[in-house]
Specification:
The protein has 511 residues and is an alpha/beta fold. It has helices at residues 2-18, 35-46, 76-80, 87-97, 104-123, 151-164, 218-224, 243-250, 275-278, 280-288, 312-319, 332-340, 361-371, 380-387, 391-407, 485-505; strands at 21-31, 51-54, 69-71, 128-132, 142-145, 168-170, 175-180, 186-192, 199-209, 233-234, 255-256, 261-268, 294-296, 325-330, 374-377, 428-440, 443-445, 451-453, 459-465, 470-471. The relative contact order is 0.18.
Length: 511
């Protein structure tokens, strides 16, 4: 009998744990605490909303640990530095870049309110450092954070605002499903406390989905981007599995621009993108791959005008039909030029500047020889054998390139004579990289108020999306001509959602 009682007690305790549920009440439930979610949470808290934030990771902040700056136009800093770009011109350029495939109304609002949003951020204590562009003669719209990293200061500032306003962060608590009533209104979310296994229920007047992108979900990625090889790697947070997008679809949400991906060029083969942030040698290895020397594909054929090495959209578009592989060929004179004379041929945001000397070339080479992304030989044919390329094919490609370089006119691809330098002095070098996805630009289709649009074209009551979980603001191409646009999009769409909830759901005025 005692044994039977023990068994029954165990069963009762097991079922009690399995069916335990924590219940929270909120005006706004926010799923995700990255750029969009954290900014929205702080803005909501300042406007008197009771906020509950569900975050699947152990810490808040998301991509804030990576971004260096944010787009804005017609700011006080730009006026001080005599930047003449207007909101109207920025809108025109951005829409033309997307061939008007982006949602014009949404893009217009993001641009128009970008300066005000950035001012709100800085007024609340986030420190900025300066104004730059990241392309030659480009738009000076990239407002950089102190030390070029918003990281802890942005996260702490926004988190303190949320907590001061009575908001709650539930970390290690991924959202699992949205709650809908019979009228189709989204009225909350179900999550799971990973520490206790308990179900978490947040009853809310509205839900903002800001769980990041689907970049790490290989199944979804290849479904909408079949041109990528199965081995394609995505940078960023490993938790970007498209959770919010999947949840949105289950309640009838429409998708937008799921085929759009962002690249930051090729990353050295057999390495991780994150290494360039922690190892100066690997940052310089990345810069070597951005050199405007001869680029060939896996067959040894030249495939593009290498002068575009700094334009991520062009590079990605050129790599896709070439197996997503880039091989840069150079000679001894190029090595000397990179180390002592011209230096890097382009920049990488604020981490490495055009003209900065690639002083660690030999260390990059030594590391690459061990890890399989660098090659060295006394002849082009010997180099081809190491690369597993037909020696005759690579020799013909180099001979043709040298012929055009001596002629001073690139008849094949139109590269400027300035960058056409013959490759004739041994030893010869090759550096191989693979196209790597920085992030993707598709998700739940939203309107200018960040309301999620259903498959029948109407807003789903009570449901909003922001940042990388949302889609529609880019069209087919991310606007690299407006650096920092992704983080500005995240901040602004999160705030748009809050404004709509305050005004339409709670029938109050924004403070």
């Amino acid at each position: 009998m005692k044994k039977l009682f023990s068994v029954l007690l165990f069963i009762v305790m097991t079922f009690s744990t399995a069916f335990a549920e924590k219940v929270y009440q909120a005006d706004l439930a926010i799923l995700g605490s990255g750029v969009a979610g954290l900014t929205a949470a702080a803005y909501a808290a300042q406007n008197g909303l009771k906020v509950v934030v569900l975050e699947k990771l152990a810490t808040i902040g998301g991509q804030l640990v990576l971004i260096e700056g944010t787009f804005a136009v017609e700011t006080d800093l730009q006026r001080q530095e005599m930047v003449g770009l207007t909101k109207e011109k920025a809108f025109e350029q951005t829409m033309n870049y997307s061939q008007w495939k982006a949602d014009a109304s949404l893009v217009k609002r993001i641009i128009d309110e970008s300066a005000g949003t950035l001012k709100w951020v800085t007024d609340n204590g986030v420190k900025m450092q300066g104004l730059i562009t990241d392309t030659p003669d480009g738009n000076r719209v990239y407002h950089t954070y102190e030390d070029h990293n918003p990281g802890k200061q942005y996260i702490d500032t926004m988190a303190n605002i949320v907590k001061k306003g009575g908001g709650i962060f539930l970390t290690e608590t991924p959202a699992k499903s949205l709650i809908q009533n019979k009228a189709g209104e989204v009225t909350g979310v179900i999550g799971e406390d990973l520490d206790t296994g308990e179900t978490v229920r947040v009853n809310a007047k509205a839900v903002l989905v800001a769980t990041g992108s689907y970049a790490q979900n290989k199944e979804i990625l290849l479904k909408y981007n079949p041109e990528f090889p199965p081995t394609v790697r995505a940078n960023g947070l490993k938790g970007n599995m498209g959770d919010g997008i999947i949840m949105g679809q289950k309640v009838g949400a429409q998708l937008a621009n799921m085929h759009l991906s962002f690249s930051e060029g090729a990353v050295p083969t057999n390495t991780l993108y994150d290494e360039l942030y922690t190892d100066e040698k690997m940052l310089q290895a990345y810069m070597v791959l951005k050199t405007k020397s001869l680029w060939v594909n896996k067959a040894g054929a030249r495939f593009m005008d290498e002068e575009h090495s700094g334009d991520f959209t062009i590079v990605q578009n050129a790599l896709l039909p070439n197996g997503s592989t880039e091989i840069v060929i150079m000679d001894a004179d190029y090595r000397k030029d990179l180390m002592e004379e011209t230096g890097a041929h382009t920049n990488y945001f604020t981490l490495f500047g055009a003209g900065q000397k690639i002083t660690l070339f030999d260390q990059v080479l030594a590391d690459g020889l061990k890890r399989g992304y660098a090659f060295k030989a006394n002849s082009v044919r010997e180099l081809a054998k190491q690369l597993n390329i037909d020696p005759e094919m690579l020799q013909q490609t180099v001979d043709r390139y040298n012929e055009l370089s001596k002629k001073g006119n690139d008849d094949d691809f139109g590269k400027s004579a300035k960058w056409m330098k013959p490759l004739i002095k041994a030893p010869f070098y090759a550096f191989r990289g693979e196209n790597t996805i920085c992030d993707v630009g598709g998700g739940l289709k939203i309107n200018r108020n960040a309301q999620v649009i259903s498959v029948d074209g109407k807003p789903i009551p009570g449901l909003y999306a922001a940042g990388a979980t949302s889609g529609g603001m880019y069209g087919d191409s991310y606007p690299y001509i407006m650096p920092g646009f992704a983080s500005a999009t995240a901040m602004n769409t999160g705030i748009f959602a809050v404004k709509d909830v305050v005004e339409k759901v709670l029938h109050k005025k924004i403070q």
